[in-house]
RNA sequence: GCCGGGGUGGCGGAAUUGGCAGACGCGCUGGACUUAAAAUCCAGUGGUGGUGACACCGUGCAGGUUCGAUCCCUGUCCUCGGCACCA
């Protein structure tokens, strides 16, 4: 018998699989399809153990599905546009395109060592023209449908990187890469009108098979809140005549009689018209102060409310009370109408503000102690004219009705979700396919002219404007409409645009005249199981859902949700329990693990570590346990080779085998990899303790283990069953055997019944299934372990659970 | 502050969702093999008491419901994520 040599075995089988094109996914098949996908990896350079943790168990799952008779597609590709490529390229003096290509070549090699069933002919690289051509096409479709537009908006500007950053690239007010304090700048930017789909995105999330946490995060991100927009007439301090209206948004119209002041955002466009002469200086000083404050400081100062009186007043349209208008930076221009009504008695922020500036606090809902803090719950209405005595929940409806009836305002729904800013002033991204013509204005690039190629020779070191603008050959062009002089848009698209539709491309990666074939897409999509990290995924997942919904409305898709089932993998920490990082020197390199133990061991250990969505510290000793296990499997199966025979198994043996098969099936279906491995180990330990292990048992062992350790399984299959030509211990065998087998052998004829006295375990009885309560009672009472606890006691009751338990209640 | 997930041996974690707590693995202890070590194999391994069969205690803490609670309810402490002046 040869020693277990994983490296040799793995090399051998990976070659055979490739030669036989075993894992080439047919476009269509009679088999039911199964589309399983991991989140588009970024072409960062090296695969780390976190990638493996994402990909390996997912491949175990994909292999499992394949063995169960599905036409499985498990594609792979690279998300390869983006700022890190530029950063690394600048640092190392390599062009981003070359850097990216190098990285991808390396990552492909690493991925191949894993033994996954990727169909490499379907690989997608998002920075290649054949792909971004269709990213640009997507942009044009959105533009056509008025879902893409250009507007002046406040954007996050990093003064050090000299570029706009996405919201997700700003962490606690500083740039994620250089930690500079991010500034707000008003800039002309391209945006996608995702807010148009806010309700649909919110409503449809409920039915998805996604982790509840992720669904909640999406719901919170969309942040729908129902309220009322109310117009307050403005009275200038001097004259008292009505010259303007101030519109506020509130979710608490029931508190309107408690308004004692108004607050307007420093960025509010109408602000200057409210400021009277005497207060002009104070207000402009205040605005200057606010401008100086960075986002970071605004957050850090948190609850400390500041503001200045404008000098004007509002009239409460319901109570006719005159209240002062303040400007304060705790009111955000970006939400609601940029102005709020101050109800200190029932809103803590307003309460804080009122206390600081000695404004009145008028209680209109009973139930709290408004002298000490705001009362934000519901209760009985007071000080509210005709609404007094009502419950505030009811008053909310009545007051809203009244406001609408009297034309003082209207019901309104607001969202936390903003339109998606997609312009980037960077080089390494898909160019936005728009042309500016002196005569015709803004013109889209005709679809036949796509792709708008990203030029290679560009000075991409950050200079504060789009690098593409420095390349006159790129910039200067002809207007597609009039043929006159025109210039190209020089911003590129956010990489999240690339990853918002890539899952639609895998079924038809080589299609030249369209991004995807609707019929083929209808067969493969939606993705059955989508797997990726829980961090940073709200945006990608939301964007992808938005794209799918928009493309459906355009008539290209027949489904409205891209990812039916979503699972997250946890984060693997260093052996020290810290997040892995170069500076801490606690990085686990998968290549070294493969070299030491083989891919099969790494795959299986990643599955066995713990619950998949949990992750946790890497245990260098733990992987040795798996290596031992696989070695033992190798030894046992090889040893038993000669006595392989069609011997009959006992009932007990069959049951254990069937139980294991069922457990592994159930666990893998639910992504419980750790307990699936444990079940195989348990059964294996039983086999190891037997004098003779039969061929049927070995066959099943190999089948069960093959999704985890496919190379090992192939090798043993070949050795034990002497089938030199056959590869992949197909579950077609298994398929027929599996469900019928379970049915036949799992049915138990005898069961252990637990005997308790006052709920405490005292004995166990092995009885035939269906034994009567009376017989079990007799047996139990006859047991000395039980009877000694029944002696001298009064029997009050007997609880009996059929085939499971009997409990004597005594006193 | 708001929302959500967790607290089980020395460690990672199991437990058919109310019915044998600690599966499986790591580690540790003892033994076999070896001149020796490594590797491998065998046995043991929640705590306390007892030579022992056994007994009692034990799933963050305090109560409650129940014949019976790791699981359900109330309170409380700790911890990890996400969002955060959203009116």
Molecular structure report:
The protein starts with 5 loop residues before the first helix and ends with a strand. A hairpin with a 6-residue loop joins strand 13 (307-315) and strand 14 (322-328). Helix 6 packs antiparallel against helix 7, helix 17 crosses helix 18 and helix 18 (599-608) crosses helix 19. It is globular, with a radius of gyration of 34 Å. It is α+β, with helices and mostly antiparallel strands. The strands form nine sheets. Strands 10, 11, 12, 13, 14, 15 and 16 form a seven-stranded mixed beta sheet that branches. The protein has a four-stranded parallel beta sheet with strand order 2-1-24-25, with helices on one face. It contains 26 helices and 31 strands.
Strand and helix map with partners:
Layout: H1 6-19, E1 33-38, H2 49-67, E2 71-73, E3 77-78, H3 83-92, H4 96-112, E4 124-125, H5 129-144, E5 148-158, E6 163-165, E7 170-171, E8 174-175, E9 183-192, H6 198-205, H7 212-222, E10 225-235, E11 242-250, E12 261-264, H8 271-274, H9 280-292, H10 295-301, E13 307-315, E14 322-328, E15 339-342, H11 348-357, H12 392-405, E16 409-414, E17 420-421, E18 423-424, E19 434-437, E20 441-444, H13 472-475, E21 476-478, E22 485-488, E23 492-493, H14 495-498, H15 518-524, E24 527-533, H16 537-553, E25 563-569, E26 571-573, H17 590-597, H18 599-608, E27 615-617, H19 620-639, H20 651-669, H21 673-689, H22 695-705, H23 710-721, H24 731-746, E28 750-757, E29 760-768, H25 773-782, H26 784-790, E30 795-801, E31 805-810
Parallel strand pairs: 1-2, 1-24, 3-4, 12-14, 24-25, 26-27, 28-31
Antiparallel strand pairs: 5-6, 5-9, 7-8, 9-17, 10-11, 10-13, 10-16, 12-15, 13-14, 18-23, 19-20, 19-22, 21-22, 28-29, 30-31
Helix pairs in contact: 1-23, 2-18, 3-4, 6-7, 7-16, 17-18, 18-19, 19-23, 20-21, 20-24, 21-22, 22-23
The chain binds one RNA strand of 87 nucleotides through helix 7, strand 11, helix 10, strand 15 and helix 11.
């Amino acid at each position: 018998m040869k020693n277990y040599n994983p490296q040799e075995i793995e090399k051998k089988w990976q070659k055979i699989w490739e030669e036989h094109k075993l894992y080439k996914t047919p476009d269509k098949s009679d088999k039911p399809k199964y589309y399983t996908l991991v989140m588009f990896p970024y072409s960062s350079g090296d695969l780390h153990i976190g990638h493996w943790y994402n990909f390996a168990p997912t491949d175990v799952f994909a292999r499992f599905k394949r063995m169960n008779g599905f036409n499985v597609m498990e594609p792979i590709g690279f998300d390869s546009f983006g700022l890190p490529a530029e950063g690394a390229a600048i640092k190392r003096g390599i062009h981003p395109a070359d850097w990216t290509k190098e990285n991808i070549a390396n990552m492909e090699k690493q991925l191949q060592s894993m033994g996954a069933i990727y169909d490499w002919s379907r690989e997608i690289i998002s920075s290649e023209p054949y792909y971004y051509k269709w990213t640009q096409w997507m942009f044009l479709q959105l533009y056509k449908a008025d879902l893409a537009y250009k507007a002046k908006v406040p954007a996050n500007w990093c003064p050090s990187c000299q570029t706009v950053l996405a919201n997700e690239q700003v962490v606690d007010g500083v740039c994620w890469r250089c930690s500079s304090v991010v500034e707000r700048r008003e800039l002309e930017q391209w945006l996608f009108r995702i807010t148009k789909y806010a309700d649909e995105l919110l409503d449809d999330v409920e039915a998805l098979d996604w982790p509840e946490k992720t669904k909640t995060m999406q719901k919170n991100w969309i942040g729908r809140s129902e309220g009322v927009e109310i117009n307050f007439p403005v009275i200038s301090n001097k004259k008292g005549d009505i010259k303007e209206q101030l519109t506020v948004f509130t979710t608490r119209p029931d508190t309107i009689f408690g308004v004692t002041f108004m607050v307007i955002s420093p960025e509010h466009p109408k602000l200057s018209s409210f400021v009277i002469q005497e207060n002009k200086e104070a207000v402009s000083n205040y605005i200057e102060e606010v401008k100086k404050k960075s986002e970071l400081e605004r957050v850090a100062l948190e609850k400390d409310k500041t503001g200045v009186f404008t000098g004007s007043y509002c009239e409460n349209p319901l109570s006719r009370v005159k209240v002062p208008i303040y400007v304060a930076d705790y009111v955000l221009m970006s939400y609601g109408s940029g102005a709020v009504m101050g109800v200190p008695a029932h809103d803590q922020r307003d309460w804080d503000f009122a206390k600081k500036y000695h404004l009145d606090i008028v209680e209109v809902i009973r139930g709290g102690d408004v002298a000490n803090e705001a009362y934000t719950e519901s209760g009985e209405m007071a000080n509210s004219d005709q609404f007094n005595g009502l419950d505030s929940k009811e008053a909310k409806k009545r007051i809203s009705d009244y406001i609408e009836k009297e034309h003082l305002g209207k019901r309104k729904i607001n969202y936390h979700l903003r339109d998606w800013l997609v312009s980037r002033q960077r080089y390494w991204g898909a160019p936005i396919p728009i042309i500016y013509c002196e005569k015709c204005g803004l013109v889209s690039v005709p679809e036949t002219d796509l792709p708008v190629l990203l030029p290679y020779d560009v000075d991409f070191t950050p200079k504060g404007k789009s690098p593409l603008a420095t390349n006159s050959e790129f910039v200067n062009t002809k207007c597609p409409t009039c043929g006159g002089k025109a210039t190209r848009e020089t911003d590129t698209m956010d990489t999240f645009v690339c990853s918002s539709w890539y899952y639609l491309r895998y079924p038809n990666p080589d299609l030249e005249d369209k991004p995807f074939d609707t019929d083929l897409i209808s067969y493969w999509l939606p993705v059955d199981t989508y797997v990726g990290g829980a961090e940073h995924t709200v945006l990608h997942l939301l964007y992808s859902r938005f794209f799918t919904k928009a493309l459906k409305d355009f008539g290209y898709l027949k489904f409205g949700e891209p990812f039916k089932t979503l699972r997250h993998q946890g984060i693997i920490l260093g052996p020290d329990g810290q997040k892995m990082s170069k500076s801490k020197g606690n990085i686990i390199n998968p290549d070294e693990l493969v070299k030491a133990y083989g891919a099969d061991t790494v795959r299986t250990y990643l599955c066995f570590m713990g619950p998949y969505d949990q992750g946790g510290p890497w245990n260098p000793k733990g992987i040795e346990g798996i290596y031992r296990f696989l070695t033992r499997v190798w030894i046992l199966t090889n040893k038993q080779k000669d006595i392989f025979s069609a011997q009959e198994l006992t009932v007990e043996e069959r049951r254990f085998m069937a139980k294991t098969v069922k457990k592994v099936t159930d666990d893998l279906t639910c992504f419980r990899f750790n307990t699936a491995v444990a079940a195989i180990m348990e059964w294996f330990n039983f086999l190891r303790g037997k004098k003779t292990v039969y061929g049927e048992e070995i066959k099943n062992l190999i089948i069960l283990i093959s999704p985890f350790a496919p190379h090992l399984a192939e090798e043993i299959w070949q050795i034990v069953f002497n089938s030199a030509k056959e590869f992949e211990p197909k579950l077609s065998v298994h398929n027929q055997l599996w469900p019928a087998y379970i049915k036949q052998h799992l049915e138990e004829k005898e069961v252990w019944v637990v005997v308790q006295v006052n709920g405490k375990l005292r004995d166990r009885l092995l009885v035939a299934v269906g034994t009567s309560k009376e017989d079990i009672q007799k047996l139990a009472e006859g047991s000395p372990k039980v009877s000694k606890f029944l002696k001298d006691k009064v029997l009050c009751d007997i609880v009996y659970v059929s085939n499971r338990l009997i409990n004597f209640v005594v006193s």
